[in-house]
Amino acid sequence: MSKIKRALISVSNKQNLKPLLQSLKKNKIEIISSGGTFKEIKKLKFDCTEVSEFTNSPEILEGRVKTLHPKIHAGILNKRKNKNHQNDLKRNNFENIDLVIVNFYPFEKTLNSTNDHKKIIENIDVGGPTMVRAAAKNYNDVTVITSPIQYDELIDQLDKNNGSTTLEFRKKMSQIAFTETAYYDAVISDYFNKVSNTNFPKKKLFYGNLVEKLRYGENPHQESAIYSKHDNLSIKQIHGKQLSYNNYNDIFAALTISKSLPLNRGTVIVKHANPCGVSIKKNNLESYQSALACDPTSAFGGIVSCNFKIKKNLALELNKIFLEVVIANGFENDALKILKSKKNLRIIDAKNFALNEIIKFTSTNEAILTQSEDLAKFNINNFRIVSKKKPNKNQLNNLIFALNVCRYVKSNAIVLASNETTVGIGSGQPSRLDSCQIAIDKMKKFINPKDDIVAASDAFFPFVDGIEKLVQSGVTAVIQPAGSIRDKEIIKFANKTDTVLIFSKTRHFRH
Amino acid sequence: MSKIKRALISVSNKQNLKPLLQSLKKNKIEIISSGGTFKEIKKLKFDCTEVSEFTNSPEILEGRVKTLHPKIHAGILNKRKNKNHQNDLKRNNFENIDLVIVNFYPFEKTLNSTNDHKKIIENIDVGGPTMVRAAAKNYNDVTVITSPIQYDELIDQLDKNNGSTTLEFRKKMSQIAFTETAYYDAVISDYFNKVSNTNFPKKKLFYGNLVEKLRYGENPHQESAIYSKHDNLSIKQIHGKQLSYNNYNDIFAALTISKSLPLNRGTVIVKHANPCGVSIKKNNLESYQSALACDPTSAFGGIVSCNFKIKKNLALELNKIFLEVVIANGFENDALKILKSKKNLRIIDAKNFALNEIIKFTSTNEAILTQSEDLAKFNINNFRIVSKKKPNKNQLNNLIFALNVCRYVKSNAIVLASNETTVGIGSGQPSRLDSCQIAIDKMKKFINPKDDIVAASDAFFPFVDGIEKLVQSGVTAVIQPAGSIRDKEIIKFANKTDTVLIFSKTRHFRH
Predict the structure, then answer these.
(1) Residue A417: inside a domain, yes or no?
(2) Scanning A122, A471, B267, B436, which has its CA 20 to 30 A from the CA of B5?
(3) Cβ contact (<8 Å) for A78 and B61?
């Protein structure tokens, strides 16, 4: 236990000061403060000494230097049980500061509200983090409070312990304090890196705010949590059971695809982070029905993501099968009512979600792999039609649709499409030929399309056998990046079979 | 340009000070310093004023408070073109500090060398980060140097610009400085979180040191880099072309499996982050040959990881097919010579690599998903034999082997094994039945084992059809977590067909 005699308060966020000040007064704790906090404390009619009076040193440089003073920092940093420290204190006529209540200039908030570089830089707090770090280092003797949400717990501590705090509490507050200072500087570092277009600095900080601890990870024996790179996630759950790790993973996989499709037309069904049905149709009901038809077996227990507002007729249709999650750009009231009749169905409004994160990262054992996301629109001018047979407009649309889905399927990926609907998806195979076979098997099992069937491959065909298999199964047009030493053989095969062949030039692996 | 008149130097890492001091002297830059740095500068016979003399304030608390003084921080933080600031300076008789050369108490190093909490805490630098943050904030007027590797560039700047630095340089140094302070506090925060077993704090920092910028990401149009959670990676490339993003991703996928197998026996072949062949055999050559036999087509261009030292006979065998990467716990000299005859083959020594990272994370759009890794050994006592037919020892060993591989295959995953070798792997399918079919097709294509065939599934069979397909294809024993409402039907089917059925109880999804 360490009895608190003196507190230093310097807060940018001035919420909930009153009950805090009442508690300090009750416990006869002297308060020192400065600037806006000092004014606020006086306004609330509590006693307070100005920092400049305490240090006998003026506040200068328009507030840039006020607490950076040995009297303040010796007051915080001295070890109460160290004789040398105590002698130093006496010799200099310094006094203990036992409680530091500080939150910082709102750098992140400023960043979100302005592009004015000078204003942003001015909001880098120097004095605040210094006091917090000093107090956190000396948690053995000093209590550090970095957020108004900790006031209640502090008041409780003071009440329970006659104006003292427990070591356990001080250590916990210290732990949070270092997370705050690290987070604060990570945001600043990120800002500087962004301004100078530095994606890969020598030291890199990735940071997030806890959204929620999850019940478990990919499996029940794994602990898990989800963080947001911002204050919170832009997707909003409006009904159903708590989202699981796998739900979140699937939701973001689904949104990556559905948000890449033409607005108000696209439906994606995802299972195990892979799409098992995708379609774009003007008619929303048809859009869903077509996506479902691609693999209705796999869709069972899956996640449906629509890039439009869900209406009553679709809600009725969705309710016909068991789904884990339904995502949409909003829901009409009667549609929502229908969907909500399924108690456990997780319903997500994703109208505020946008694909705009550029750098993604993943940890793999001791390493962190980071790369820019594969989100850019295709540059169709770069596509090269290499077959004698030229695609008609319908084929070209379908090829582009298939290639776009294909880049979001785990490699090796083959996507068959017809009428801007997937009719066969082969995913996650070590051999491209196997992915071809899987896509074909799916198509034969569920669809057998009447119209033109096209195929997209996420990487080149190393041999003729893959494309041969596709053409034998009815595919009339193929798009692939090219780059194999057998490209010429493949072109020859396409010409022999009157197949359209386009080289898209850009590979789209995804693992 | 801003002419530098006065520098403050306070460095924990005292490397390369001499040429720096020579350059400062040449440019008539006054130096202030304290403690160990002051002594070192004097020892090198350069002029230097002690901080306590400069501030006219003693160094106290055994060095905890020395630079935390308004004269130091006003000297750094004042805006040189702001009249109020300049008046404040004059009024207080303060002087400019234009250059801050500081590196911090070695917190991370201390952490790696001791468990002594007090010693660790003592190595939290307070004064250093404060000066660095103040200088970095005021980069418009002040130069901040945070590492000896920046000295040459600083010297170059002073030489080129008559004792000044350019704004561009100062801004770049400021950017690095904030990354340093953020990283420093992230390590401290992580330490406190570890000590208190807090895996998921409210704000979370993930951090790494750049290992290298990669040529590109999963695809050539994506930028990429790899970071290490430590100083560097424990794997060591000893030959071949630069590793790519996909190489690294596959290497860590391969190592996760091979390091989980009994030491000195295991070989894993990986393609597109999935295993396409795994085997454990006492004889190392057989271990590789068996792994290869599982799917020799997919192994082409793959990654081989052995959890033993590679000898000459295996090297000769490995050279027979095209491989991207060979990984082992070391190589005998003659083996290495043989492998090196392939100019491009990437050879990796992973004897220092261990599976010990507990929390992994992945970014997905705006979210960061984090969870503990699925690495723990199976608790075989929890397994429940639910069929009338009991497994013999051979079956049991094979079931455990198959389940261990299965948990590292992308879901839905089915692994067929015989003689502690995979004979069919079905990966990455939205439907479990499809994964069964793929595994069976592989087995029929390449192997047709003579001995007992067993199967493992990463999650429960929702229907009888999956296990039925397996048994029809010759599988005699199955392990799966269970948990389906049709578990009873599945047990009934096992009994009807005299199949061994074990419920492992733990699910092993991986995406």
Answers:
(1) yes
(2) A122
(3) yes
Q: Is A126 a member of any domain?
A: yes
| Alpha helices in A205-359, H assignment, sequence order | 245-258, 284-294, 296-299, 312-318, 333-340
pLDDT in tens, B216-252: 999 999 999 999 999 899 999 999 999 999 999 999 9
Q: Do B276 and A430 touch (CB under 8 A)?
A: yes
Interchain proximity B297–A245, CB inside 8 Å? no
Q: What is the DSSP secondary structure assignment for residue B454, as one 8-state letter? A: E
Substitution target in A61, A62, A88, A274 with the highest count of B β-carbons within 10 Å is A61
Residue pair A76/A95 in contact by the 8 Å Cβ criterion: no
Summarised one tens digit per residue, pLDDT across range B86-125 is 999 999 999 999 999 999 999 999 999 999 999 999 999 9
- Is the pLDDT score of B338 beyond 90? yes
User: CB–CB of A431 and B84 under 8 A?
Assistant: no
Q: Is the ipTM of this complex over 0.90?
A: yes
Task: Give the residue-averaged pLDDT of A188-192.
Answer: 97
Whether the model clears a pTM of 0.90, i.e. scores above it, the answer is: yes
Quote the strand ranges of A461-509, DSSP E: 475-480, 500-503
Among A297, A332, A349, identify where a domain stops: A349
3-state secondary structure (DSSP) of residue A441: helix
Residues in B closer than 8 angstroms to A214, CB to CB, are 371
- Total count of domains within chain B: 3
Collapsing DSSP states into helix, strand and coil, what is residue B232?
Answer: coil
Q: Which of B65, B218, B367 sits opposite A371 (nearest CB)?
A: B218
Domain extent at residue B301? 234-349
On whether both B311 and B428 belong to a single domain, the answer is: no
Give yes or no for residue B1 having a pLDDT over 70.
no
What is the distance between the alpha carbons of residues A272 and B427, in angstroms, rounded to a whole number?
A: 11
The phi and psi torsions of B438 (rounded to 5 degrees) equal -65, -45
pLDDT in tens, B319-330: 999 999 999 999
Can you give the pLDDT at residue A376? 86
